[in-house]
Amino acid sequence: MTDLTETDPAAGEQVVKRFMYVNRKAPHGTVYALEVLEMVLISAMFEQDVHVAFLDDGVFQLKKNQDPGRLEMKDFSKTYRALEGYGIEKIYVEQESLDDRGLAAADLVIPVEVIGRAAMTELMAEMDVVLSA
Amino acid sequence: MKYAIVVNEGPYNHQAADSAYQFVKHALDKGHQVLRVFFYYDGVFNGSRFVAPQSDDRHIVKRWAGLAEQHPVDLAICVAAGLRRGITEEVIAPGFRITGLGQLIESCIDADRTVVFGD
Question: What is the pTM of this model?
Fold first, then answer.
């Protein structure tokens, strides 16, 4: 019990970094979207400041009413709804990427923060770690 | 500088595996620390001991293993990505090990810079 009062300053200090996971690819066609999601879920265990961004074809990952079962693929779009339960609430979608694909925030499976390309650039610049695929 | 490296692509298929190697080699030669090279997505194939390129070509797997012999660099293959591609303990080359995604996050936290190689 005495260990709790005499904490090693180096060991006691929890490092919290700003992480951003950047999704740029369509949900199916390649495995990247699924494996980024697996990475995001694991990262929730580390009490870091997690941000998830969707841009380019990555915005399709969040589209409602996906039916990839016919391709023998799992519909993991439902899993994005679980992110909130893992404490991952900073979800950003790029406005221009939605516009280019005829999509709007209402077409997405979860509530997100829609930001413009310039704001996305600024946000990325503020990150400590950017993991993209 | 302490680096964490992520390799997203397979060997021979994509320049990323070569670029990552060149980056890590030269960072180490310059006296920087590379805490971990984490192989994810098809990057896990960088650790297959069955890779057998033609004799006049670079041997990407042995090249990584050679680095790990000379420097304390951790060549870590993602267990989940590996399993679905058949990259398991039985088939990995010397110098590599299989570990969880948590080790990727951990090295990103510990490093000064994280560098991702892929598209």
Answer: 0.93
